[in-house]
## 1
Amino acid sequence: MVARIKCSTSIRKPFHYNDNKVKQGYACLLAAENMLLEVDTHPDNAVLLLEKQVALRPDVKVNSVHISLNFSPDEELSNEQMAQIARDYMEGIGFGNQPYLLYRHFDSGHPHCHIVTTNIGLDKSRISLHQIGKLKSEPVRKELENRYGLIKAEQQNTKTLTINPLDASKVIYGKVATKQAISKVLNAVIPVYKYSSLAELNAVLGLYNVRAEQGNNGSRIEQNKGLVYRVLDHDGQCKGVPIKASLFADKPTLPNLERRFLANDVARSKYKDSLKIKIDVTLKFKNCSSLKVFQDHLKSQDIRLVTRVNEHGAIYGLTYIDLKSKTVFNGSTLGKEFSAKAIMERIHLAKIVNPDTGFERATALGKGNADEFMNENNSASPYYRLDEKSALELLMQYEYAASNVPSEWKKKKKRRKK
């Protein structure tokens, strides 16, 4: 069993999250413990009661507790068993006498339940939440595993209890509730991955068929720094009605994202060099005859390469997504040698020597039209010298002491006596 505790300043947010799940048919209310009012037919009574209890201590800001108990997919628990385990858990962490709502959810591959409560007592006392996970939850969780014969958290495959972006079901317009599906993707990406621009964020969201848009140039959305999220089809075309960022619970608006950009840029910097080495080694020692082969080699290292293509079908940008470190880098951010132009030169282009000039000309190979790409990027000539070395070769080569430097230059200058 895995227990997760989230504390916040709003009791309504976790209540409405679970209540909406019930209304959509993805959850059911298992129990309403220590409630003085009827909540089975009038669920709003529950949040009113919790709010009144929270109001007893206006000086306490963090007064909402949202707990999820997650069980192994191999365990088959009845509603009664799950409810009893939840009651014993709440008793063990010191919330046995608190009013709380217990919901069972059916929207995941493993059985789990959610608990909504407050840490404010009827006598105006406050239950301490400091290190509640380590000091209270963990000992109780282990004791319940032994008592009920549950599969221990250490033995469970953590992938079943977390969202894996590449294995998760993509959002397909018309198949599921659009807002709910997009919200699930945003919750799995925005707080987890380290990106520093909207383009980098969209590279990850694109793995789920979701995109964030600022609106067209001069539009009211762009002028007001608004943001909408849309569903994409398999061809990358937008489908359905866009949904405003402000309508989602976590408010993934553009100003909130921009605050993350700066922090993410600092947090991801320590992973930059290791990613560059992986890409360089792949280019140097793997037979990358086309962009598709290069992508496959990176994929085997849990790195996703996302291409940005213009309206003419030419590749103008590359984005690297490291699934292990949860970092996102545009190629130009890593360095000029990792940009789209440089990668196309090293992968897509075969070298054909021109006997008249002694230079080699780049010709297209594999997927994509490299000549078209080179024409659109006039900053570099399509001809390269035969003895040109890659950046990695230049860095790794041994420099001999016996070079052609004049001996006079090697001598140290004598200091002038004062």
## 2
Amino acid sequence: MSSQPQWTAVDDYFTGLLAPDDEALAAALRDSAAAGLPAINVAPNQGKLLQLLARIQGARRVLEIGTLGGYSTIWLARALPADGRLISLEFKPEHAEVARANLARAGLDKVAEVRTGPALDSLAALHAEGTDPFDLVFIDADKVNNARYVEWSLKLSRPGTLIVLDNVGRSGQVVDAASDDPAVRGTREALDLIARHPKLDGTAVQTVGTKGYDGFALARVLD
């Protein structure tokens, strides 16, 4: 039976072949670790997937909910044209400081902006500003608010926008309708919203790899 060491070995093979490291990405992880940030960033091959999705979308504007140290932000920002724009929302100022430094070192600080504060407040502020719609939204923040993040993503989107919701597998716990885990409940609420909302067409996929057993959901905004 496959196990975590085998999942990690396969991910390492995929990453080395198809999503090799570079100094900006490696430094982002090193500096995040040195600053005491939790090692919950996406895996390199997952970062490459986000980059490919943004390019497939032809994305010019990306919204990221949950910055951490900016590792996934770098992957996404590199998919944008020179006049593209990425806005990333981070709750903790100390995390945002690390992310901004990582983005600057990667030469992406003119493309990517990190805003601090509770994401729901930042999303409301973006809406109040009348910001242009985003082409891709990546949600990877506190799971209890996942459904609220999907709702705000809809308000800040256009027909054809792609919404990516990370960490939906919850190590298999997502099937437990009676769970009292706020992350499981928040994830189930978001998936239920995607399933029933008339303006969303989505699916979810289980994953295994260096980050363990999890999954992600994809939803396209309809006309």
## 3
Amino acid sequence: MTLLSNATRGTLRLDLGVKVHQRAEPATVCLPYQPASVAAARKLVRAKLREWGLDVLIDDATLVVSELVTNAVKTGCQTRMVVAVRRPSPDRVRILVGDGSRVMPVMIRAGHDATSGRGLAMVHRLTRGRWGITPLPLGKIVHADLTAPTE
């Protein structure tokens, strides 16, 4: 997995000072475990979906990446997380967030008064259950797929 594209057609500057080259190919960025990384990840996903003409997925995709990056930030890892957006097919987008923690996210049933715990349930609903986890020797990758509605 490459961290940045070598393209020079256009450059997107994320709020954390990370440059991501834009083109019709996948985008991957390495971000620190900071709350500001959530906004940077949303910006990356929004820009790629606009570039790909998949504006219809922007709201759901930015919510999904927000939840996945927020979970990664909470792991307390000290390295950097990897956030990627791919386009496996013309109508499908895959968002990936890799972190250095082997603790697997768990979907819980949050109570009515709970102030947290609903993130993965929202990801599950928005992706229609098309999300998952790939354990790695030094962490994991959580992926979520969104499909554009057919006409």
## 4
Amino acid sequence: MNGIKLHKGDLPANLDLGAIIAVDTEAMGLNPVRDALCVVQISSGDGSAHVVQLNRDYDCPNLKALMADPAVLKIFHFARFDVAMMQKWLGITCAPVWCTKIASKLARTYTDRHGLKDVTREIVGASMDKSQQSSDWGAAELTDQQLHYAASDVLHLHHIREGLLAMLEREGRVELAQACFDFLPVRAELDIKGWEDTDIFAHS
């Protein structure tokens, strides 16, 4: 597990990860209201990852402070889900955020393949193993395979953001993307409160 640091319950105090971090979460399922948040993984972009295995009391003040810190930009892939999980289970508003999935959909309009595996392959030239995506993240002890999977989801996000940002700048869509990112905490709250499948902007 070279470069992967496992923390039980919370991040260490005074851990400086910089002003831009990559973040992902693992949970018991895809329903933020029903399925417990189990793991939060973080990378500062230096090739290493911090994996926080959460207790179900969610007594993790250091992690909460980092996720809510307005001076730290959090990069996600499909931030809508992760931000909703943190709102529901950590009781915080995670901001500011930058979502590589939204950026991909706004910049890579020549494809409909916007999953992390496809975006990583094109932007970074790296392959990802997603075999541990569906596993028991609530287990008392995480396997080496789970830890490596969790780390892999954040290790490339800084470079992906750089690549997508260049494309957004070229296409003149940076401000549009930023407006979408700023709306994500509200979108997450709508998901939690029952409007996850409703387009409130639609005519009917």
